């Protein structure tokens, strides 16, 4: 699944709990995020969480429904396991910020602080086929190319590599693997399938 260990809580809670959490970004949560990720990465993570929380509230649905469904299905099968296949969010944030100039960083901070887009009924329908947060990241990539490279292209490679490793035969027998990823990564994974090695990630 397109999750890393720091986002695995999405699997442990039901949708109602996650919706409540999205509405409640409190001081303790902020402190924990900064302690875990460092000041600069922590602040950006909080701003991204805030944007995600606004989207969640607008849509009335918590992120990660497809991942929770996958875990429910896995629990009904024998000899099946869930693998967290995404790059740690702290590394992704660090790489994204490293690629921005000071001016771009300040501009991005302002954009994240002032983010207040209303989501239309049409966009809600589109969410059934697309990951809205992923789409917003792609839009930001137009203004901040480093963001697009790190959040989309690099993670395409990372996710593709995770799937390739999971698909390796076990004990001489072929394995069956199902990858649960945002639709924004599907094309990149297909394009790079079978060609990604450890050095690229």
Automatic annotation (TrEMBL):
Which branch of life, at top level? Eukaryota
CDD domains from the xrefs?
A: TraB_PrgY-like (cd14726)
Give the matching Pfam families.
Answer: TraB_PrgY_gumN (PF01963)
Q: Which InterPro entries match?
A: TraB/PrgY/GumN_fam, TraB_PrgY-like
Q: How is this protein named in the record?
A: CSON013861 protein
Q: Which organism is it from?
A: Culicoides sonorensis (Biting midge)
Give the taxonomic lineage as stored in the record.
Answer: Eukaryota, Metazoa, Ecdysozoa, Arthropoda, Hexapoda
């Amino acid at each position: 699944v397109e999750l890393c260990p720091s986002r695995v809580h999405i699997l442990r809670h039901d949708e109602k709990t996650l919706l409540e959490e999205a509405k409640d970004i409190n001081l303790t949560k902020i402190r924990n995020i900064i302690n875990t990720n460092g000041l600069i990465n922590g602040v950006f993570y909080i701003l991204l969480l805030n944007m995600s929380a606004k989207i969640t509230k607008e849509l009335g649905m918590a992120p990660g429904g497809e991942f929770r469904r996958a875990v429910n299905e896995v629990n009904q099968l024998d000899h099946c396991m869930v693998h967290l296949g995404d790059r740690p969010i702290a590394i992704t944030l660090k790489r994204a910020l490293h690629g921005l100039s000071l001016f771009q960083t300040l501009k991005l901070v302002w954009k994240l602080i002032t983010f207040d887009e209303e989501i239309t009924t049409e966009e809600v329908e589109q969410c059934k086929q697309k990951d809205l947060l992923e789409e917003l990241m792609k839009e930001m990539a137009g203004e901040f190319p480093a963001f697009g490279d790190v959040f989309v292209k690099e993670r395409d490679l990372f996710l593709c590599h995770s799937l390739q490793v999971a698909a390796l035969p076990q004990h001489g027998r072929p394995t069956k693997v199902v990858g649960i990823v945002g639709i924004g990564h599907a094309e990149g994974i297909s394009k790079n399938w079978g060609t990604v090695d450890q050095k690229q990630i």
